[in-house]
Amino acid sequence: MAEALFSFEQFELNGIQGGYGLLEGYEKDISGGKGKQDHLFGMEDWEEFESLCSQYGLFQESLPEKRAQISKAQHQPLRSSCWTLDEVQFDTVSPRIQPIQDSKKIEEPIHEPNREKPYPFSISSLELLNNYGGGLKKLKAENSSNVSSEVNVEPQRLSTEEIMRVAGARYMEFSSQRGDDFALHRHPFGFALMGLSQEETKDVELVHLLLSAAEKVGCQQFEGASRLLTRCEWIASDTGNPVERVVFYFAKALREKIDRETGHSIKGNGRKDLMSLGLGTNLASIAFHQELPFSQVTQFTGIQAILEHVGSSGQIHLIDLAIRSGVRWTALMQALSEQDNSPVSRLKLTAVTTIDKNEVEETGKRLQSFAESLNLPFSFKVVFVAEMKDLKEEQLAVEEGEVVAVYAPVVLRSMISRPDHLDVLMRVIKKLSPSIMVVSEVEANHNSPSFVTRFIEALFFHSVIFDCLEVCMSNDTQIQNRLMTEAVFFGEGIRNMIAAEGGERIIRNVKMDVWRAFFSRFGMEEIEFSEASLYQASLIVKQFACASFCSLEKDGKCLIIEWKGTPIHSLSAWKFT
Hints:
single chain; alpha/beta; ten-stranded mixed beta sheet; 19 helices
């Protein structure tokens, strides 16, 4: 059949896929209240998806070589199996990422990352900042060059992450000079601030204050930390520039941590409340998905991979571990409905959930109506379990002759705090012998047992995220949605990651090499993404105005989505051997 492509514009109405703040803690099992979603969409909102194949769509056949020649990167050998879910650390460094090679015949938004950027990192002390200071000389040289050779041209403003790097280098040089807290920060530091604008200098000094406060909190010097935070809070704002907004949320989290450590009673969000942050269909989350490329790249590339593995089967059983709005499955339905050579006699979709059963059932009704409009034989089932450890193979009701595909979008990390739950889930999935299992996660390490290390890692990661939000959601009509996204999703994630400890610290992320080591315990083998899937990812990126800042890289067989060279999301495909 002809290669049909589906439209990406205004397609994904899913809740916040990235979440960044949905990963549970690792030490204890805790309970919480039920999360609640905003239900805004009825069947009328799905009608706009009926012409998805008109412009772009899922590839039904292999791409001709003349259309895409995306070379396969060499799979780098993993280090020894020193990371397991039985270890509390869950803390490693990823192998160096290999870029996807550009096609000469297709203009791919794929860029070689800046290898001088000191990311990723893994040092478990404040010396971690040295890893970020490496780019300082280059930044100063560039600024100096701009001033000397282009006197009449306004130099380009540093990104939020670059401001953090300059502040980190400045702080490390100051670390050998100890004195009165306030006198220290009045001291001029022309070396690190040379060539910076007045606003950039102000931002660097603000981050310097925040780093000082974090170090004092780590040393349990709460009185001094509180004084520094007072200055941060006076300057930072949740409506200011990206640096001010990042500092605002981290200062707020540090203040709460001080209150907790000094005996004030602070009640954190329950596990299910935090898990449900990314599951809503409110306007802020919709805007996030429409304007930022990360979730659409992972979802539609993953769906393309699933289609390639199950599309030729007559009986297909899809298992979604975090279905949310479920709109992504409409693309697969359309692709299946257009197949002439392999008509589908049965398409089943099973949604496994521990929260919001009613919302998932509503999603099923919308998908059922959509399938009927395509004359697809479709059935939907919700498997609700109070805890994932209660999941049984029989509940999924896989019948003989069905080809199974499992989709796990940013959900496995929610069980790292309770390895017995994750172990049960993986063993159940293994018994189903799925043709493919697609996994997407946040590609970051926010699970260090060291508070200062975790703080620095989270600070630099979120500086990239807030920079992305600033670039992609800067229009007047988007600002309110951006502010709500930052406050509700990322702000709450930062709060839990920094302020909470032990079982209450449920927001964590781990990197792809950690997942590889874990999956190997279940005899899972990583699958290479096809050229069609990689081309699909590049097409999606090009739909966004911010495409020049978003790059696609390969880490072995895994696809990494980056923002200005910093890994944000990973997408991988697996089979059981």
